Amino acid sequence: MPPGGLKPGGLAHRDRKRILSRMQPVFLSIGHGYSAAAIVSALGAGWHVIATTRSPERAEGFARDGLAPVLWRSGGPDAALSGAAAEATHLITSVPPGNGDPVLAALQDMAAPRLRWIGYLSAPSVYGDAGGGWVDETSPTTPGSARGKARLRAEEEWQAFGAARGVPVARLRIAGIYGPGRSTFEALHEGRAHRLIKPGQVFNRIHVTDLGRIVAAAAKARAQGPFNLCDGAPCPPQDVVTHAAELLGIAPPPKTPFDPQALSPMARSFYSENKRLRSVRVGPELGVELLYPDYRAGLAAILAATG
To answer: Is residue 267 part of a domain?
Structure first.
């Protein structure tokens, strides 16, 4: 039998009975990964966490970390997810849309009698290109890329799903995520860092710890509507690479003129849009002040933690 008392169908009966008897909040993380782990950490004590994964090996790791793992993949048997949905009071999904949202398709006809809040992890691509101008939660959503249109469609479908069930939905539009183990330092060490020069191009980022704190605050407040999860320092991407190399005491990679034909389709999509993100809601409504308001603070903390 897999760890944590789980059977292939999902949570063991004794775990289900124990959770419901306590009436504690149950946080269901679908597609649990790097960002979701930071969210769970920020939630703190008092939550029972159910985490889905496609991997039996990752499920074993979840159980060791005190999570209740559920094996589920879109297009496969949904019994395990159905059992988890029946217990969840709060739900986040980190699964990106494909031809439609696979999580929403699976949940559509499932009973979720305890559900009180949904968080959909989305992306700023829903805003489209702003020509380098500022964008906040009040800005119109006019996606130009296929991925942006898919994200906006998924947001709207989740909003409709929540409205039909009387459950608030937070649309969490997340800038480029970095943090321990997933930063420019690793890219430099592994030879993956580049300094592509596209004049005027800027991006925002968000340290994964701040991401977790914002989503946890939204979950606890049962906040709804759009939130931009971003730092306060949009800048050219090559500046981050240069600064990280300086912190490591190594030479940065050479500057390379921007050539869209040399990029992957995903990278071309990212570089096709240029905007400066900010939030007018995270601080005033959730009371969250960023620990890492710019990449300099975030990289310094990562380096200090790794010695």
So the answer is: no
Give the CA distances from residue 86 to residues 73, 112, 202, 215, 259, in Å, rounded to whole numbers and listed in that order.
Answer: 18, 4, 43, 22, 50
Distance in angstroms (rounded) separating the CA atoms of residues 283 and 22: 33
SS3 252: coil
Phi, psi of 247 (to 5 degrees): -65, -35
Residue 217 in domain: yes
We report the CATH number of the domain holding residue 53 as 3.40.50.720
| Per-residue model confidence as pLDDT tens digits over 20-51 | 445 799 999 999 999 999 999 999 999 999 99
Tokens of 272: 């096709």
Helix (H) or strand (E) holding 37: helix 34-43
Q: How many domains does the chain have?
A: 1
pLDDT at 7 > cutoff 50: no
At residue 16 the predicted structure's pLDDT band, cuts being 50, 70 and 90, is low
Chain-centroid distance of CA 197 in Å reads: 27
pLDDT in tens, 128-150: 999 999 999 999 999 999 999 99
Continuous segment of H or E residues that includes residue 51: strand 48-53
Interval 217-246: pLDDT, tens: 999 999 999 999 999 999 999 999 999 999
CA pair distance 299, 244, nearest whole angstrom? 7
Token duo for residue 81: 């997810």
Domain-located, residue 101:
yes
Residue 194 within any structural domain of the chain = no
SS3 label, residue 28: strand
**Which residue type does 172 have?**
L
For tokens 């580049």, the residue is 194
Distance CA 299, CA 121 (A): 24
How many other CB atoms are found less than 10 A from the CB of residue 18? 13
Q: How far apart are CA 58 and CA 221, in angstroms?
A: 30
Domain of 34?
A: 3-179+204-232+275-292
